Amino acid sequence: MADQHIPTSADVGDMYDRSTDLLSEVMGGNIHLGYWRNDADDASVEEATDTLTDMVAERLALTPGLRVLDIGCGSGKPAVRIAGRWNVHVTGVTISAQQAAVAGARPEVGENAGQASFQEADAMDLPHADARFDRVYAIESFLHMSDRATAVAEAARVLRPGGFLVTANPYQRGGELSARAAEVVAANRRLLQIPPIGDVDEYVAHMDKAGLRVVETLDIGENVRRSHTLAAEAIRSSRAAFDGAFSAELSEAADIIERFGELPEIGYGLIVARRP
């Protein structure tokens, strides 16, 4: 029987309230996967996660002074990096009060180009006016949305005509999952508060329905796969700081993350869409 776990926004927020500090430490200050060019690439986790941030930013076609929305801003590091390197202003939103506090405490926070600001908000009901932003991006956040069609529609609503939306997400590659793969995916979904993962066609369909025109889809699943192994290793190493049940929970979480990362049925896609 298919796993019907559908997390609420509160579930996702609570998960990140509890795990943001650990995940940020594990992933080099970011809370998303990293990109390695090939097996010989010896980049650190921080370098690899920053590279993925840059890959998203490069697809936004940024010019100085633009106003950008980061949906699911995590620790705030991607927003601050993009704001500073491209001289734009980034507004980050997150469902997690802890993430909003961590991101908001960064010294680079402000309202000018080259700075970022942060707020707690639900991406399925954004508190922004129509066409408020020149660009929108979402790194591993639509993955958590219980109603992705609404989340994409909200992103399109606040994006001005001519602007770009760029998303980065794990997704299921075509075909049915094997019994083993389905078990691993279900465990990962419960751990990280993820509804059914979906495939690239689902994301494209949501963008089409929202009036966006998809201009690029790129599967970089093999380039990010190392992230899961390194994250699992780091989580296991962190167990020494904890006792009892929580230490056991960390061990189980590390195993789930590592097994999920090994699945060839799971890809990772960059999708670029433009609002006509």
Description:
With 276 residues, the chain is of the alpha/beta class. The protein has one domain (9-274): 3-Layer(aba) Sandwich (Rossmann fold). Helices cover 43% and strands 19% of the residues. The chain is built from ten helices and seven strands. The chain has helices spanning 9-26, 45-58, 77-86, 97-104, 148-157, 179-192, 200-209, 221-224, 226-238, 244-261; strands spanning 67-71, 89-94, 116-120, 133-139, 159-172, 213-219, 266-274. Strands 3-2-1-4-5-7-6 form a seven-stranded mixed β-sheet. The model has no long low-confidence stretch (mean pLDDT 95). This is Methyltransferase domain-containing protein. Residues 69-166 form the Methyltransferase type domain.
SSE arrangement, N to C: HHEHEHEEHEHHEHHHE
C-alpha end-to-end distance: 41 Å
**Global shape:** globular
Which structural category do the helix and sheet elements fall into?
A: alpha/beta
CATH architecture annotation name: 3-Layer(aba) Sandwich
What descriptors fit this protein?
alpha/beta; transferase; 7-stranded mixed sheet; globular; 7 strands; Rossmann fold; single chain; 276 residues; Erg6_SMT_methyltransf
